[in-house]
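Readers outside the structure-tokenisation community will struggle with the description of the input data as it stands. For illustration, here is how one protein appears when written out as sequence plus structure tokens:
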Amino acid sequence: MNSFRGFKKALRRRTKQNHALVGAVPGSLVQHEFAHDSRARAIEFSRLKHEDRQLESAAELQQHLAAKQHLVRMRPRRTAGSDDATEASNLEAGRLSTSPPRPVTWLNIDGLADVELLKEIGAQFGLHPLALEDVVNVGQLAKSEAYDNNLFIILRMPHVTDQFETEQVSLFLLDGLVITFQEFNGDCLNPVRERLVKSMGRIRSRGADYLAYAIIDAVIDGYFPVLEHFDRLLGGISDEIDEDLPHDIPKRLHHIRADLLSVRKVAQQHRHALNTLLRERSSLIEEDTLLFLRDCLDHITRLIEDADTYRETCGELRELYFAQLGQKTNDVMKVLTIIATIFIPMSFIAGVYGMNFDSDVSPLNMPELHWSLGYPFAVLLMACTGGGLVYYLKRKQWL
């Protein structure tokens, strides 16, 4: 972030996205050149147990998918038209039942190179082909869509190295099952996994909808360290302006301001996606979980406000930089003007006595040239003129 060349490189990287082939059949899945190898991980948990498995082979994953598909189909699911009395009766029966709570499964896929694996997952759980196409063609806007048996949510997970970038996280919420697809290995979801391992809070006693909320919340909260990073950068630039005036500060501020604008745009996309999710009120999301999703909206609002504040800070630092630069230029010009003001009368005196009129032609032609003290007189006259100007400038507090 310290050079304009780095900014242009980051801009090219940010605009290079996988997209559907021109003229391709809608819903077709195509492996892209930059896709990473696919790795699957399954976490199954309930209030009483937690199991974390790394699925090493496609066959092992397919076996696991078949078992999960059977469980999902066997589970009774609330529908939008279900009777409230029936739901209340089922809820009361669930409270009185001594059977252990049904487990929730989180299936996470890192890397999108294996499109056959994605097709298999889609076929097992009835995921819409258009949604799977959005999974493969990363670079989609954050959004949420409702399908017959699932909710499809796209999130933009932040990464900060030498520039701001986002990774697409695609989330499917089914009854008792959450499926996430990520572009790369490594994410900001480790706090969620840690809560599952240590049974922190209510996450192990809630359903798949609460797990989906926890993932969304972790992605949104991941933007606050990004803003803290920009805050440190702006603080360092402010110190540099006070101490010195590096020439690359305007370029760095332009880069930071562009990144902050990207943060704001992504935050607005997430706000729109959550508003759509809350407005549709899917039967897959419990009422209590909707309250937590509204809290995510508050985080997004704060995120947008903070991004706007830092963008304004960029503008203020830019104005301060040019004001300091202008003041520094004015100081240099002031010194040069004072020097010129002092030496202009001396130059005039030297010019007068350098005209070399012939005194033999007329006694009025510079008789001082023939004085024995003519040179000391000229030097003394210059010194007195310069000293008088210095005294005058100090009296006026210009020096």
Q: What stands out?
A: Confidence is low (pLDDT under 50) at residues 1-16, 76-100. The first helix runs from residue 4 to 15.
